[in-house]
Amino acid sequence: MAFAPMGPEASFFEVLDRHRASLLAELRRAGGEPSGGGTRLASRFEDSVGLQMVSHCTTRKIKSDSPKSVQKFALILKILSMIYKLVQSNTYATKRDIYYTDSQLFGNQTIVDNIISDISCMLKVPRRSLHILSTSKGLIAGNLRYIEEDGTKVNCTGGATAVAVPSNIQGIRNLITDAKFVLIVEKDATFQRLLDDNFCNKMSPCIMVTGKGVPDLNTRLLVKKLWDTFHTPVFTLVDADPHGIEIMCIYKYGSMSMSFEAHNLTVPAIRWLGLLPSDLKRLNIPKDSLIPLTKRDHMKLDSILRRPYVTCQPFWRKEMEIMADSKMKAEIQALTFLSSDYLSRVYLPNKLRFGGWI
């Protein structure tokens, strides 16, 4: 074994091992990526990849002789010239670095971010091929070791501490793990609580990742790399609310803004471990621990229910309908009503042992 911490006995992981075997069997049958189930749909979505940009999508022209777009045209040329220099010199820069080369010219960081995404889409290459990196905000902990591009050896098995997600995922190599599963945790507070509860050691071997809310590009790339390298089952732990479901969908199916890079970012094999809306009633969580859905929540939930990939996920749809009918949502912290360590001591171990995912 590559790592020392001892977790549950081998029989604990029997259902997880069967789940992994079924994912691998599906992978072999498909000759590629395991799908999310159901039939393939036209338009912007394929269940084996996620959201994709289609050939007949709306395009936008930017002209140098048009008063409406001349400034945007100039900024694109400016950033293209910087990209050319980065590629020629085989060096890298962050989006923040590019903004601060001439902050007065660019105006704000969002303008730079959008132009870089437009260039990546226009050239049909991943952003890292432009030698532009994103600043990572995500964290990783558990049964994983790897070597960064500069030769730095990283060991994520640190008990109550986590490691920052690398800024150049493409450059990491020699990944080693014995992990039985990868757990994506929506919120940093929940992630830190699980670290404090020594979850990674108690459930060893496993890996935990958080994007601290909506995941940045590097966190998504890391989850994708872990799946592509090890084909270890990946689960999400998110709040039982529309925002949490949206974040889970980004990891699993991608986002409209990055649909041109879906193949490099999405993991359709991801499963929803918790917090399920149906768990709230099953565990008798009191109503005063729940939160009423706002008008914005209802709009977000309706939007998700209309998405094509939900037709491939009848169990997801059922959970969202339970939420809509109850008009209530819940944060993961609602489980503390049962006990302060209920999440790490009871909820997650039982879910993982008995296959409580959808």
UniProtKB/TrEMBL annotation:
<dbReference type="Pfam" id="PF21180">
    <property type="entry name" value="TOP6A-Spo11_Toprim"/>
</dbReference>
<dbReference type="InterPro" id="IPR036078">
    <property type="entry name" value="Spo11/TopoVI_A_sf"/>
</dbReference>
<feature type="active site" description="O-(5'-phospho-DNA)-tyrosine intermediate">
    <location>
        <position position="100"/>
    </location>
</feature>
<dbReference type="GO" id="GO:0003918">
    <property type="term" value="F:DNA topoisomerase type II (double strand cut, ATP-hydrolyzing) activity"/>
</dbReference>
<dbReference type="InterPro" id="IPR013049">
    <property type="entry name" value="Spo11/TopoVI_A_N"/>
</dbReference>
<dbReference type="GO" id="GO:0046872">
    <property type="term" value="F:metal ion binding"/>
</dbReference>
<dbReference type="GO" id="GO:0007131">
    <property type="term" value="P:reciprocal meiotic recombination"/>
</dbReference>
<keyword id="KW-0799">Topoisomerase</keyword>
<dbReference type="GO" id="GO:0042138">
    <property type="term" value="P:meiotic DNA double-strand break formation"/>
</dbReference>
<protein>
    <recommendedName>
        <fullName>DNA topoisomerase (ATP-hydrolyzing)</fullName>
        <ecNumber>5.6.2.2</ecNumber>
    </recommendedName>
</protein>
<dbReference type="GO" id="GO:0005524">
    <property type="term" value="F:ATP binding"/>
</dbReference>
<dbReference type="InterPro" id="IPR036388">
    <property type="entry name" value="WH-like_DNA-bd_sf"/>
</dbReference>
<dbReference type="GO" id="GO:0003677">
    <property type="term" value="F:DNA binding"/>
</dbReference>
<feature type="domain" description="Spo11/DNA topoisomerase VI subunit A N-terminal">
    <location>
        <begin position="71"/>
        <end position="132"/>
    </location>
</feature>
<dbReference type="InterPro" id="IPR004084">
    <property type="entry name" value="Meiosis_Spo11"/>
</dbReference>
<dbReference type="InterPro" id="IPR013048">
    <property type="entry name" value="Meiotic_Spo11"/>
</dbReference>
<keyword id="KW-0238">DNA-binding</keyword>
<comment type="similarity">
    <text>Belongs to the TOP6A family.</text>
</comment>
<dbReference type="InterPro" id="IPR034136">
    <property type="entry name" value="TOPRIM_Topo6A/Spo11"/>
</dbReference>
<keyword id="KW-0539">Nucleus</keyword>
<keyword id="KW-0460">Magnesium</keyword>
<dbReference type="Pfam" id="PF04406">
    <property type="entry name" value="TP6A_N"/>
</dbReference>
<dbReference type="GO" id="GO:0000706">
    <property type="term" value="P:meiotic DNA double-strand break processing"/>
</dbReference>
<keyword id="KW-0413">Isomerase</keyword>
<dbReference type="InterPro" id="IPR002815">
    <property type="entry name" value="Spo11/TopoVI_A"/>
</dbReference>
<dbReference type="Pfam" id="PF03533">
    <property type="entry name" value="SPO11_like"/>
</dbReference>
<feature type="domain" description="Topoisomerase 6 subunit A/Spo11 TOPRIM">
    <location>
        <begin position="181"/>
        <end position="352"/>
    </location>
</feature>
<keyword id="KW-0479">Metal-binding</keyword>
<feature type="domain" description="Meiosis-specific protein Spo11">
    <location>
        <begin position="2"/>
        <end position="43"/>
    </location>
</feature>
<dbReference type="GO" id="GO:0000228">
    <property type="term" value="C:nuclear chromosome"/>
</dbReference>
